[in-house]
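Field reference: sequence -> structure
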Amino acid sequence: MQAVHEKIPLSERHSFQSFTHTQSEFLFNWHFHPEYELTLITRGHGRRYIGDSIEEYTEGDLVMVGNSLPHTWQSDSLQKKDQQAVVIQFPHALFQIGDDLLKEFSNIMKLLHQSARGLHITASQSLLDKIRELPNAQNLSRLMGLYEILDEIQTKAGIRILASENFNPSLADEDKRRFDKIHHFLQTNIEENITLEQVAKAHHMTKPTFNRFFKRNTGKTLIEYVNCLRIGNACALLIETNAAVTEIAYQTGYSNLSHFNRMFLRLRKMKPSEYRKHYRLTSDD
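Structure field:
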């Protein structure tokens, strides 16, 4: 999966970025940057792609992305409300003087090291509130607020690593459009019987070349990736509609209900009906 290098602008008054990002939808935009990033979803749901990890996100989802780790968020197309996230982007230089790392940041340095593969963070409500409020802080309070947030994540929050150990992306800018086209092709034809030969031919590659390109840069085979997309689409339909599970299976490209149920259970650790019930109970809390 090829990612584009995103340059993050810093103002003359601030040493790191902290802002609330609101859009009508989050579009697939596979990218990376040398800064670390904390993203807290405050409105909406969809899928997040962190390295070779593809999972659903919803309100309250908190993720930390390490420097130069490719990532993006893509909201579900069924939604009619704006998507919103609090985003904090900060450089490694905030934790050192010259070439020396400050010993007071030893806990934070552990966190930065762990974030190389992306982290899903289970945080207390007070910590989530601190993150939401950081874009409004000024001057020294803003900087100290970031340090406190990172220290609390490392010492008190639950942390789960997202990308696999085998994920080794190619970060060359020139292939970014190639992968975007492949991803768009898969999403557009997700209800069809997608074959390796069909996708490789559509993108002017031989099957062996496509296999190497795709596996090297996503950590997944084409079939594994397509199943992740299909089950992700099924999750959106379970959340947003009252359609029967059988209907959702066919809408997302599964001609066999048993196969759909097995794949859903493998990827989401619960049955489709349990997922719908769990999400709606959580949303009502």
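Note: The chain has a mean pLDDT of 86.
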